[in-house]
Amino acid sequence: MDQRTPVPASDSDNLSPYRIFSREEWAQLRADAPLTLTADEVLRLQSLNDPISLDEVAAIYLPLSRLLSLYVAATQGLFKATQRFLMAENDVKVPYIIGVAGSVAVGKSTTARVLQALLARWPNTPKVDLVTTDGFLLPNAELNRLGLMERKGFPESYDTNALLRFLADIKAGKRSVRAPLYSHLVYDVVPGEEVVVDRPDILIVEGLNVLQPARMPRDGTVIPFVSDFFDFSVYIDAEEADLHRWYVNRFLRLRHTAFRDPKSFFRRYAEISEEEAITTAEGLWNRINLANLRENILPTRQRASLILKKGASHRIETVALRRL
Q1: 6, 115, 210, 242: most buried, per Cβ within 10 A?
Q2: What is the pLDDT of residues 117-158, one digit of tens each?
Q3: CA neighbor of 258 nearest in space, from 186, 208, 200, 312
Q4: Cα separation of 232 and 99, whole Å?
């Protein structure tokens, strides 16, 4: 058997829409894709309490980057074929959109940034932009008015219509499409601040609930989902117990870093005892983040094109690729 085409490790269930690869099998699919990031660059790309090594980039993200390069090329070919069919040769370029989903504390931001850095270093140096859906959260004043502060991050806490309009404009090839900017320091949307997305080759959209479908209307009315605009999607997966531990550890680390900034929304937590901090983090996890994971995020996992399953050390152990 050709060693460059590994057989998936757990492919016995023919009803599964996924091909399952062990870490070692997936790493072989890197082929000759060059490693274009340095250890220092990878260190700068990782989020707090989400360690990632150069080995992880080589074993997991380089094969994914190679796969995406093939998918983007195929999609561009399909787009050109559709243009010829419609006799619309002057249609503008349509960006390839990648969604990244998963729980709080699972490492979505690190994955999105590493993918952006790798994809932007392809030989044809495509323009790759990254937007998080945090900017489309309702402002805190509105969440308070609606009684939704304890539901922040749940689907109802977002301005979904604004997010859909943003994605529709991106897919229409419009110039200088604007998205609101969110600050994790002040824990709120920043008034008047925006991110401008100007016809990228690839756009990565990262967020908790980006794979969630809308409730289907009984009368057949067209209701778009956020994921309808995605060409490819990645779900970062981990066991609940690991997510819980990572969240609490991150909260404790933030007490000694970002929470100490006088502008921080969570400044009050910097001065409490470690025991009080653990109790607070446990409460936030169980009351908000775990509930959101179980009710809204985890049920969307099977809608992803690719599932990256992390082990207890943040190391990705298996990769599930949806069959075409």
Answers
A1: 210
A2: 999 998 877 899 999 999 999 999 999 999 999 999 999 999
A3: 186
A4: 6
Q: Which residue has the tokens 């990705």?
A: 316
The residues, any chain, with a CB within 8 Å of residue 170's CB and separated by 6 or more, are: 95, 97, 177, 197, 203, 229
Residue 202: partners with Cβ closer than 8 Å, 6 or more residues away:
72, 95, 96, 97, 98, 119, 126, 127, 128, 129
CB 173 within 8 A of CB 76: no
DSSP 199-219: --SEEEEE-TTTTPPPPPPTT
pLDDT of residue 61 exceeding 50, the answer is yes
Q: Over 60: is that where the pLDDT of 4 sits?
A: no
Mean pLDDT of 23-42: 93
Q: What is the pLDDT of residue 13?
A: 54
CA end-to-end distance (rounded Å), the chain: 23
Domains along the sequence of the chain with CATH: 18-322 (3.40.50.300)
The total of other beta-carbon atoms located within 10 Å of residue 234's CB is 26
Tokens matching residue 36: 């274009």
